[in-house]
């Protein structure tokens, strides 16, 4: 319709602490699990999982923007790593309840 | 060697708020992105991403235990959904730095 045609992409973003960074929350969960009897579980690391939708001209542009958003806002690059998957959203004409 | 041989599995667990549950953190991030100029991003939802290692006799046993751990400790089933992937860990004889 307009001058720009955009596509909606669904992004799944995984943010994890760098391996060298201590994870007190993960340690607490592991200790809780051990108290519950799960002594066979270790290396618990807790990160963030972000889903969002982005409108962009193409996948390269969406990738570029998500990468910037991760580095600037979602993750702390000093202590965290991030990675993400992008998937074009199917165009839906009806609403979902 | 012993009476029981176990295999180590690496689990990736994704915990998300149920779609009907409000996500104030996601809304805050979306608002921040909008202020930064990213008005093409919406439906931001923030969840948890947990990695852990579990020792179990087989994949079915590991799956059963991770499912219980999610329902009992990691997720709040009233407001959160969870899903996970399991992968057998390659046996490593050397250490990684």
Automatic annotation (TrEMBL), chains A, B:
Organism: Lyngbya confervoides BDU141951
One Pfam family here: PurS
Protein name: Phosphoribosylformylglycinamidine synthase subunit PurS
PANTHER family: PHOSPHORIBOSYLFORMYLGLYCINAMIDINE SYNTHASE SUBUNIT PURS
InterPro entries: PurS, PurS-like_sf
Pathway connected to this protein: Purine metabolism; IMP biosynthesis via de novo pathway; 5-amino-1-(5-phospho-D-ribosyl)imidazole from N(2)-formyl-N(1)-(5-phospho-D-ribosyl)glycinamide: step 1/2
Catalysed transformations (reactions): N(2)-formyl-N(1)-(5-phospho-beta-D-ribosyl)glycinamide + L-glutamine + ATP + H2O = 2-formamido-N(1)-(5-O-phospho-beta-D-ribosyl)acetamidine + L-glutamate + ADP + phosphate + H(+)
Major localisation: cytoplasm
CC per GO annotation: cytoplasm
Name of the top EC class for this enzyme: ligase
Localisation per UniProt entry: Cytoplasm
GO molecular function: ATP binding; phosphoribosylformylglycinamidine synthase activity
Gene it is expressed from: purS
Subunit composition and interactions: Part of the FGAM synthase complex composed of 1 PurL, 1 PurQ and 2 PurS subunits.
Transmembrane segments: none
Keywords: ATP-binding, Cytoplasm, Ligase, Nucleotide-binding, Purine biosynthesis
């Amino acid at each position: 319709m307009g001058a720009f045609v955009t596509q909606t992409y669904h992004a799944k973003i995984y943010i994890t602490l760098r391996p060298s960074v201590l994870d007190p929350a993960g340690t607490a969960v592991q200790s809780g699990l051990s108290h519950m009897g799960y002594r066979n579980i270790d290396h618990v690391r807790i990160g963030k999982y972000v889903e969002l939708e982005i409108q962009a001209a193409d996948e390269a542009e969406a990738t570029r923007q998500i990468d910037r958003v991760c580095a600037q806002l979602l993750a702390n690059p000093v202590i965290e790593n991030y990675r993400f998957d992008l998937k074009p959203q199917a165009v839906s004409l009806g609403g979902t309840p």
